[in-house]
Design a protein that fits this description.
By secondary structure, the protein is an all-alpha fold. It is 59% helix and 0% strand. Helix 2 crosses helix 5.
């Protein structure tokens, strides 16, 4: 039986480090940081770790498109911001030595959710 991405890279501990490093970059981004000024980052990292764990074939939270849309609809996220987020996510995954195909899979999973995240125009 083939291993999942989650299993290949060490499970929750690796996913948690990826997510933490990703959000360090997000908070350093002039384009993205303003979205997180009043956010409990510990809680967000916990949710995002569970979400990415699920996307990579592990146990975790499978947020429906409806939930993702509800959470993001009032944030005014633009296409430019979404693309910046994807670049930073890709960088974090690569920094943790995920293979090219696995990085493409995870980034593709996020990209497929663009319609329920981007509400700031430019779609």
């Amino acid at each position: 039986m083939a291993q999942t991405i989650f299993e290949r890279y060490g499970g929750f501990s690796t996913i948690r480090r990826v997510v933490s490093d990703f959000y360090d970059s997000v908070l350093d981004s002039d384009l993205l940081a303003h979205h997180f000024a009043r956010i409990d980052m510990r809680e967000l990292i916990k949710h995002q770790t569970a979400f990415i764990a699920h996307l990579t074939g592990g146990p975790g939270a499978d947020y429906s498109d409806e939930v993702l849309a509800r959470v993001h609809k009032d944030l005014g996220i633009t296409d430019e911001e979404f693309e910046e987020m994807l670049v930073l996510l890709q960088d974090a995954l690569e920094e943790h030595s995920l293979g090219d195909d696995d990085v493409a899979e995870v980034v593709g999973q996020f990209r497929s959710r663009r319609p329920v995240i981007v509400f700031g125009g430019g779609r």
